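Pasting as-is:
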Amino acid sequence: MPWLLSTQLDRLSSSPSQRQCERTAFSFYCAVRERQPVWRLEDMRSMEVFCWEDGRPRTFLPSEALLYALVHDHQDYAHYLLNRYSVSALRAPRCSFCCCCGSGSPHLSVAVRYDRMTILGMMVDALKDCDVQSGRDYLDGCGGCSHVADAGKTAVQLAVELSRPDCLLILLVHGARPDALDAALQRLVSCDAAERRHAQRCLDFLLLFLPKPPALRRLLDEPQCWQSLLGNEVFSWLCGLAPPPLLLQSLRCLARTGPDQIATLPDFLQLHS
C-alpha cells in the first residue's frame, strides 16, 4: 500500500514482520517513482523488498514491478522487465482484496489510463512471443476484479472512453478487437469542443479496423446532429444507406496491409469524418 504514510501503516498492520514488509514495499515504490537505475531497482526487488501475502513475505513479481514502472513512466525499467521476463511480466497479479487473478492483463489498461504510449508499444511487442490466442486474450481481456478501477473494460474501450487515439492505434495495429464503435459515437456526441478532435480520431481508427461496421439506423433519429459530426458520406455509410467513402475504403486496405503506416500519412490523406 504505497500511498499510505508509515504512521498509517503501523496502525493498519498487526505484526512487526508485516509492518516491515509494508515499509520496504513503500521504499520500492519511491525508488521507482524517483526513476533510480534499473540495476538498483532489480537488486531491491529480488533481495531487499517484500510483499505480505498469505501470512508470509514474498518478493515483488516482475508484473507488479512493471505496474510501478507504468505509473511513473520509468521506460528503462519497463524495457528491462519486458526484455528479461517477456510475457510473464504482463500476468495479472493476484488481487490483495479478494485473492484472485483477473483475466487478461491490467497493464494495458494502466498504460492507456496514464497515456504511456512508449511502454504500451513495448508491451504489445512482447505479446509477439506468445501464441495467437494468448496474445488475443491479453489484448482483448477486461482484466481486474469488480472493485478495481477500469474493471470490465478492454484497453480499446478505455482508450475510446478517454479519447487516447495514439494508444488506440497501437492496440488496433497489434490485433486488438475494435469493439467500441458505440462508445466512440457516444463520446463524440458528448465531449466538449476541446476534446472533439481526439474523440474524432478514435472513431476514425475504429472505422479503419472494423471488418464490417453494423448498419446503425438509430442515427437516423437525429440526422442533423450526426451528419454535422460525421459528414454526409460516413453518416450514410453507417446508416446502411450508401457504400463507404472511397478514401475510407483505400485507408481500410492500407490498414490491413501496412497498419503501422497509417499514423505517418500526411494530414490531407488522414480520414476526417
